[in-house]
Amino acid sequence: MAQTLGLDPKGKAALVTGGNRGIGEAFVRALRDAGASKVYVGSRDPAAAAHLVAEDPARTVAIKLDVTKQDQIDAAAKACGDVRILVNNAGMFHNVTLMNAPDMSAARDEMEINYFGVVAMTRAFAPAMIAAGEGSVVNVLSAGGIAASPVMGGYSPSKFAARAASMCLRAELALKGVHVCALIVGSVDTRMATHVQGKKERPEDIAAVGLKAIRRAIDEVDTDVMAVEVRASLARDPKGLERQMAKLLGLSTISTGR
Ligand SMILES: NC(=O)c1ccc[n+]([C@@H]2O[C@H](COP(=O)([O-])OP(=O)(O)OC[C@H]3O[C@@H](n4cnc5c(N)ncnc54)[C@H](OP(=O)(O)O)[C@@H]3O)[C@@H](O)[C@H]2O)c1
After folding, report:
1. Which residues line ligand 1 (CB under 6 A)?
2. pLDDT of 209-231, one tens digit each?
3. Which of 12, 56, 140, 249 lies 20 to 30 A from 239 at CA?
């Protein structure tokens, strides 16, 4: 019978995309702390993951993995057939809006990494999980993927798309014993958020929520206060939230039409 419950990382192999720094790095450590047998650190430059390998060489393997390159994804899936936990963490935020960007390249890049990367990785790694009768896929998404933020013009739509994909993949894979979780992340103290003022969560706290989601097979979880607040505002006053988001652009007026 297909496994529909959560997965204990103890004794399982895991792979984290963009695992060399930020939230990905925290996931690598959290998975090892939880007893994972091996953690593959997906990194565009494996040398950037050397510090993580040095911490625990017996259980940490750096692999070259750009999630926009199908040949690298295929090679990783072939070399890492034992992966039962996949953390789709790699992400890109270009910090331009849809209208002020000089061309479409930033928006396309964000979609390639944040959306197509998630789908391509899941397509490549799920078959081995299905064959083993167990697996967990964790997609690191964003509060900007449940409430559109104009200051994140290309990023926000890419995270919306990845959230929709998470729902579609969850339905497809649940029947085959593989759980898909969407982590809705607010603001975290990583390189991606260096421009952000105000409170930022610690990457390790986000990874801890992710580990809980894996163990309990939680479909979607808000990882921090900002994510919870955005979801609450969305439910309470979506138009107000839209206006609030627009103000971040410095706009004085915005349509109040429904
Ligand atoms: N920080 C926040 O406030 C925040 C909020 C909500 C959601 N998130 C999400 O959390 C995830 C992790 O971000 P972070 O905050 O840890 O940011 P980060 O420190 O900038 O890390 C991003 C990671 O993604 C990797 N990456 C970028 N493009 C890639 C590609 N094409 N293939 C493989 N890896 C790639 C980077 O690799 P390189 O080192 O090679 O550049 C890096 O390891 C992202 O999905 C992000 O959208 C972050």
Report:
1. 17-18, 20-24, 44-45, 48, 65-68, 89-92, 113, 140, 142, 185, 187-188, 190-193
2. 999 999 999 999 999 999 999 99
3. 140
